[in-house]
Amino acid sequence: MSERVAPVSVIGLGPMGRAVAGAFLDAGHPTTVWNRTASRAEPLVAHGATAAATAADAVADGPLVVACLLDDDAVHAVLDPVPFGSEKTLVNLTSAAPEQARRRAAWARGRGIAYLDGAIMTPTPSIGRPSALVLYSGPEETYRAQGPALASLGGTATYLGEDPGRAAAFDVALLDIFWNSVGGLVHGLALARAEGISGGELAPYAESIFGLLPEMMTRFARQLDDGVHPGERSTIASASAGIEHIIATAETRGIDTGVLTASRSLIRRAEAAGHGADGLSRLASVLAEPAA
Ligand SMILES: NC(=O)c1ccc[n+]([C@@H]2O[C@H](COP(=O)([O-])OP(=O)(O)OC[C@H]3O[C@@H](n4cnc5c(N)ncnc54)[C@H](OP(=O)(O)O)[C@@H]3O)[C@@H](O)[C@H]2O)c1
Question: Where do the NADPH-dependent reductive aminase-like C-terminal domain residues begin and end (predicted)?
Answer without folding.
Answer: 163-288
